[in-house]
Amino acid sequence: MKTSKLILPVILVIAVVTIVPLVVHPAEAHILKTFQNVSVKIGWDNEPPLVGDTNKIDVFVYNGASDSAPPISNTALDNMTVIIQYGGQTKTLTLDPSDDTPGLYTAAIIPSQIGTYNIMIQGTINGTTIPSTTYPLQLVEAKDKYNFP
After folding, report:
1. Does some domain include residue 11?
2. 72 CB burial (10 A radius; 0-12, 13-18, 19+)
3. Chain centroid to CA 11: how far?
């Protein structure tokens, strides 16, 4: 009798433990913006970004109004200016196309200060004018929050 009362709760726990990881996804800090028929998604490669760690800025470019549209590979950023900004300081980034992921362009960077960094883009992609647009990036955090032991 006691065994039959335990079976249903055990089955429910097993079901939850099995299904939840498939349904729950971590928050994505990349921001997607659409400009007519071109979409640009920007964010940190490694999240959360940590001060002093080498990271990359990811720029995904799509030929359509969503990140499920076909990617624009290799030449999408040829007529674009991409700048990273922190406080009053700016740096123009040189982004390289990914060999493995069509439509992905990356630039290595080491954030040296805790806080919010911004990416500013401007130019043209496939004949579409991209006005000066700012993407706020996920907050750069201190490493000591994650240190153990």
Report:
1. no
2. buried
3. 37
